[in-house]
């Protein structure tokens, strides 16, 4: 490939990304160029709009200008379409690093919206994991799903909408778990601090029976004699099993 042809390609690509700042190669009809400009930008805008519907709705008329700046300014690390959403998150972080003012929750909201796609396309095969799907996750060692992600946010991102745009960090964090079940559906579950920590223990301590993990957690909290919390924690493990956050138990 000749250097002059490469330069022509770079000039053409630069014009498509930012037609205001970069003139097109000479001799090209603007009517034809407009087709390419619209086609490329609309593909990116539609893709991001489908992956970040809440941000798009909240931005309103400012959405397309934001996407256009991303399209023109951001140097992506990959050309893969499923990774465009991650690149958009990087761009939002770059804007923040440059001192551009935005909602204080936008990075967490973007991550929350991106996670659904990430878990959906995760290549982990839960059917290949050796476990007893009918096992007792309290008496035996529960198996944490590889397509279950524990999420800890400063803002309650699942509640953000037009009439709730927090400007101050809430006193308490938001805990969530997102998981893909055996039917291929992705579901979010809101957690409290106790259930979040219990799932962390399950994930970080494979092979330990659920009851032992519950007892260790309650002892660490100074509540090892609390029968109500003990029963509640056991019920939590069983509910997590029903949602495929826990796939079952390790075989004997």
The beta-strand count equals: 5
Q: What is the CATH topology descriptor of the largest domain?
A: Outer Surface Protein A, domain 3
Mean pLDDT across residues:
92
Straight-line N-to-C gap: 62 Å
Strand order across the biggest sheet?
Answer: 2-3-4
The portion of residues assigned to helices is 40-55%
Count of discrete alpha- or pi-helical segments spanning 4 or more residues: 9
By CATH reckoning, the class of the largest domain would read Alpha Beta
State Rg: 24 Å
- What is the succession of H and E elements? HHHHHHEEEEHHHE
Strand content: 5-15%
What's the multimeric state? single chain
Number of domain modules:
2
Q: Explain this structure to me?
A:
The chain is mainly alpha-helical and 252 residues long. It has 2 domains: 100 residues, no CATH class; 125 residues, Outer Surface Protein A, domain 3 (Alpha-Beta Complex). The chain has 9 helices and 5 strands. Strands 2-3-4 form a 3-stranded antiparallel sheet. The chain has a two-stranded antiparallel ribbon with strand order 1-5. Helix 2 crosses helix 4. The protein is elongated. The termini are far apart. The model has no long low-confidence stretch (mean pLDDT 92).
